[in-house]
Design a protein that fits this description.
The chain is mainly alpha-helical and 380 residues long. The chain is built from 14 helices and 3 strands. It is 47% helix and 3% strand. The longest helix is centred in the N-terminal third of the chain and has 21 residues. The radius of gyration is 22 Å and the shape is globular.
Length: 380
């Protein structure tokens, strides 16, 4: 549908997205588990029907359009939300003491078994079938780490390692060889840059792409930051806190500045190359990016609250302050990474991320004032 009017969008659209169905179910169950929106009889019945539907289509081996509404394949990022919904529903049934789930008796167990087995076979890849669409790194997989939490810590770290393949100077590609919003996209595609493509049309669009000209999307750095925050809160390892702050700084640096055609202080969908410059694409501002950034800030607040005023967490190592020349060079590198439209405030935030004093176990109040003061650039 058209967001501004609520009316149906009559253009062709690839609606086959099991991930969207899984996210809807998972989010609805989370509201019920938190007591914010208890399940009514109709909603309870609807969830049962949707789980039976996922079983009927054998969603664990179904080919769908995935997060990006493109190539039909078996997407790990589509299996994850469905698995998260199954586990959340089981948790809700146990929490409420329900005896008769509103679906076939064995539906939830069949779904959980099939989805987990297929995820184990695919991850840390995004797709392995069909072979022509094999993809070993896709930024959508970060959502399996956070907020869905359907992977182990070891697998989560493998996924974040794979994301280094799609990391850019401003943000992250969705995946390499992604032609959506590639260089001079509107000039090449026409006056409807948001149109959707069939699998055959995608082949023609992909031919427009030159290596390294993929759009860089602002959705993912906040989620990577939030995930490292969860790891820090769980383990107390200082390196996770540094990575949390680094990716939060990257996310903040991507906020638009005064020279953006859509206005300053906007969370955009992506930056793309147009006439030799990286600029926000037309989907600016984007609520998806805004809520991702809000969650990253939320997890940073939790990490700061977890800091201990009388000493470091177990296993934490006090960071060593690098030489002055090294700090200056690093600040220059960070500023060079920031988009041309970002305000000086966020250049400063990213730059200060290289200053490792105070240490990770500074007081909570001082930490709140110096959120970006302890992360190091490292190799990212």
């Amino acid at each position: 549908f058209i967001g501004e009017t609520g009316l149906e969008d009559t253009k062709w659209y690839n609606h086959k997205q099991n991930d969207a169905l899984g996210y809807f179910m998972w989010a609805r169950i989370q509201l019920a588990l938190a007591g914010k929106m208890p399940l009514t009889g109709d909603h309870f019945k609807l969830l049962g029907q949707l789980f039976d539907f996922l079983r009927t289509i054998e969603c664990w081996k179904d080919f769908d359009a995935g997060h990006w509404e493109e190539h039909s394949a078996q997407h790990a990022s589509s299996l994850g939300p469905c698995l998260a919904a199954v586990r959340a529903f089981k948790q809700m049934i146990a929490q409420e003491g329900l005896k008769l789930p509103p679906c076939k008796d064995d539906t939830l167990d069949i779904l959980e078994k099939g989805l987990q087995e297929q995820l184990d076979a695919i991850l840390p890849n995004e797709t392995v079938l069909p072979v022509e669409h094999t993809r070993d790194a896709d930024s959508a997989l970060i959502f399996l780490c956070y907020p869905l939490n359907v992977v182990t810590e070891d697998m989560g770290l493998q996924i974040t390692e794979r994301l280094t393949k799609v990391m850019g100077r401003i943000a992250m590609c969705r995946y390499r060889k992604d032609s959506y919003w590639c260089k001079d996209y509107k000039e090449k595609i026409g006056d409807d840059p948001t149109k959707h493509f069939t699998d055959e049309e995608l082949k023609a669009r992909d031919a427009l792409l030159q290596t390294g000209e993929e759009a860089q999307w602002c959705l993912f750095d906040p989620m990577v930051s939030a995930y490292y925050g969860k790891l820090y809160q769980k383990t107390g390892k200082a390196e996770y806190l540094k990575l949390q702050q680094l990716f939060l700084s990257r996310a903040l640096a991507a906020i638009t500045g005064d020279d953006c055609e859509f206005g300053p202080w906007m969370c955009c969908e992506a930056y793309y190359l147009t006439k030799g410059e990286w600029k926000p694409n037309d989907n600016t501002p984007l609520v998806w990016t805004q809520i991702d950034l809000k969650m990253a800030l939320y997890e940073m607040e939790k990490s700061l609250a977890a800091e201990r005023p009388h000493g470091p967490p177990p296993g934490a190592v006090r960071p060593r302050r690098p030489p002055r020349a090294a700090r200056a060079n690093a600040r220059t590198r960070v500023c060079a990474r920031a988009p041309g439209g970002a305000s000086d405030l966020f250049f400063l935030a990213a730059s200060r991320a290289l200053r490792p004093s105070p240490p990770p176990f500074a007081s909570v109040e001082r930490g709140r004032r110096c959120v970006y003061g302890r992360a190091e650039l490292g190799g990212a």
